[in-house]
Amino acid sequence: MNAHRFWNWFLAPGTLWILVLFAAPLLLIFALSFGHVDDFGRGVYGFKLGNYDDVFNSTYLPVLLRSVGYALATMLICLAIGYPVAYYIARFGGRWRYVLLAALVIPFFVNYLVRTYAWVALLADEGLVNNAIVDLGLSDAPVQMINTPWAVIGGLVYGYIIFMILPLYGSIERMDQSVVEAGKDLYGSPLQTFIHVTIPATQAGILAGCVLVFLPSVGDFVSAQLLGGPDTYMVGNLIQDQFFAASNWPFGAALTMIMMLFLSVWMVLYLRRAAKGEAEVL
Amino acid sequence: MSDLRLNRRQLLAAGAGLALTAYGASGCTVERPLDTSAAGDIVEPKIDGDLLIFNWAQYMDPAIKKEFGEKYGVEVNEVNFDNLEAMMVKLRSGGEYDLIFPSSEYVGRLRKEQLIRPFDRSQVKNAATVSPYFDGPWYDPNSEFSLPYTYYTTGIAWRTDKVDTMTESWNDMSNPEAFGKIFMLDDFQEGIGQANLLNGFYLNTAKPEELEVSKETLLEQKKGLRGFSTLTAQNLVSGSAWIQQAWNGDVVNARNQVSDPSIFRYQTCKEGVPVGTDAMSIPVTAKSPGTALLFIDWVLSPKNAYRNVMWNGYPQPVAGGREAFAKLVKDDPSIDVNLNELKGSSNEFRLDTPEARREWNRIWTEVKA
Q: What is the pLDDT of residue A88?
């Protein structure tokens, strides 16, 4: 047995895990997406394309578009907040950098659902923030903050921003400082240097962060359910309702497949881009 | 990772594999069929082993379980579900629970699917004081598969310090005084149901033309909504809701959380009062069905009903439970609904065909989307 073969065996447990606990359930969801519901409300596997027709019903299109819109906004806000934070920690954190990173990561050990509930308590009309606003005389009446699209996007940002900061931190920390100095030597202003040198040098982190935030945001249902209003229904809510309220698993499965297909397109584009980037660096 | 493209042959093979999976599974239900041979056997009340309860979380005073275990020398364990579909899935896949707490509609479905066992109500001593309202209900016509645990009515809760123009009508779901501060229950049956009642239709109508009218009603109401939510107590207490479509038990919980409970009031509506029930049933897969039946009797005893209602705030339609609930809501008797007086105006949710359920869900999704 040569060394190559030997090391291949180390892949076996992981491969088995993926096949049994990821690929097989996914295949079942795929099969169920062509199924129907019997008289007892049970999902039955079959050959029906109707579930997919329903997905492309004009009613659900706005839900899909809204989900993508919220996810894009979340991604951009995370980038705008995350980049300076990651940059500061990576460049100027000094011996405090691991403490700062830990301070960012530790809140994420708390369950997302619980953190979102905390937002409700904080931002409700008679919550802590609004009580302070009214007591300080900043406004006569409470400001409605939750049950709005902004609250949903805010919840998503809070929920997923760590996935933006960590890859950004990694790529900023690894960035060769001499290229920035070279930019300055060539009479680049700080802004020009940042745009033409720092951003391209950290684009792998930017891309990774954007993908890691965008993908889970599109399918999220917690934020819209707890912080949303009457017009913030997202595709994650739609899918969850099909499984747990509407007893329509086949339709829920079809929605899941379409969403996965949509997200896979972005994932593949990202991976190809990342592979190309790697090739260029080498 | 440099080449992610599949060649044509790989693509075809993958497609064929997917099609084969779909074909192989075709006609099967998601879960394998259960052995339901025990479905006809009448359960006898006798200790036949330890008890495993399958219930909503925080829905029963733990002392009731503990003292039952001490009295009969058995272990009483509880596991929880967080929605009824999940409960169904676990039952169908062979979960060996001795006692479950389905809603009335799910009792009907479990009965038709032969997933629960019959018992003789006359052998359950404390069932004698159960409200006659639950004699031969639609979901259990011979009163042999279930006994009621709790019940609830659906009405409208409001903040007396914000709104003073309530009219005891479902029209209040679009009361202009609370525009933008109104919550509708995030429940397809409650949402469509109140619109049906408001339009003078049968609560459970399956007529497409009537449902279309109710959909328009809902879309009109939606303009004044702040959201769809079942977190009634939280919405009321946090000040976000001025008007909230609500189950009466949740109003009790909201009132318990504030120093001045009189700011929350509750009304039932003249167009009709939906009534819901959570029942107790014994699955075919039960290991200790006899112990489960004794436990049902235990839960319905006046002493246990009384303290359970005081503990969880939901009314129980049985001696002890009624008194406890009346005590809880003595400041606002409108929360306490006398089931026997409701006979004429009450309505229970039931969707008898998969088509009706599908149609209702489609409308609800279109309203929420």
A: 95
